[in-house]
Amino acid sequence: MAYKLMLKFNGEVVSEYTLENVETTIGRKSENTIHIDNMAVSSHHARVVLVGNKAIFEDMGSTNGSVINGRQVTKHVLRHGDQIIMGKHELVFVDTSMGELPTQSGAEEDGEGDMEKTMVLTAQGRMNAFGSAEPVTNKPSLPMASVQILSGPQAGKTIDLTGSITSIGKGEGCKIVVKGLTVGKQAAVITRRPTGYHITHLEGLSRTKVNSDSISSEPRILKDGDIITLSDMKMEFFNKLVG
């Protein structure tokens, strides 16, 4: 699938960005993939992460927040025609395989069935869920981490969590593949942030668990030795020793 974001100002398209990389950052600083020079937009306002065939929008704890289809959100699985408001600018999400853009009301209706994956939080809730608004960087203060498979045919295998996002599920493109009829194609993701590694459940009847506790669409920080369970697969999260 091919996705893009159209940047609009005062109703006019000023630029288009094809989502070619796993992560597309949005913010006021010029180092962002999509640079919006407006004081209402935070330095590192938000990002869009590709997980399999999904594009996931995340507000990075911005000061003024992000509004999609009239709702303030921190995390949202994007759909064709979704309208993202940041200050006086608008970003429109386009799935190029879908043809014409729907009306705004149509985009809202399409999103209603997806609201279990959208978190509507207060400003304090955004900070609790996502922490610092700074983007993921290769800072030495954050040690690299890995997971080791504890059960199933891959038992003993170690997977390094080197990217900003690691997808878990039965779908194509998932770095950690878990089979099962009730496992989602992109069941969960592990994201690497300045505050550490976080895991989030996205979809599927089989719930992702950490230390036997089911997790939700609100990111949960992982600690050394945590046991992650999805269907019949168990894996242990651990920080790698440096040096």
Task: Describe this structure as you would to a colleague.
Helix content is 7%, strand content 40%. The chain has 243 residues and is mainly beta. The chain has a 6-stranded antiparallel beta sheet with strand order 2-1-11-10-7-8, with no helix packed on it. It is globular and about 55 Å long.
Which blocks of ≥5 consecutive residues have pLDDT under 50? Answer: 104-140
Largest sheet descriptor: 6 strands, antiparallel
Helix-strand topology string:
EEEEEEEEEEEHHEEEEEEEEEEE
Total DSSP helices: 2
Neighbour order of strands in the largest sheet: 2-1-11-10-7-8
Describe how the helices and strands are arranged:
Blueprint: E1 3-9, E2 12-18, E3 23-27, E4 34-35, E5 46-51, E6 54-59, E7 66-68, E8 71-73, E9 75-77, E10 83-86, E11 89-95, H1 104-112, H2 123-130, E12 145-149, E13 158-160, E14 165-169, E15 176-177, E16 188-193, E17 196-201, E18 209-210, E19 213-214, E20 220-221, E21 227-230, E22 233-239
Which key phrases capture this entry?
single chain, mainly beta, 6-stranded antiparallel beta sheet, 2 helices, 22 strands, globular
Compose a concise summary of this entry.
By secondary structure, the protein is mainly β.
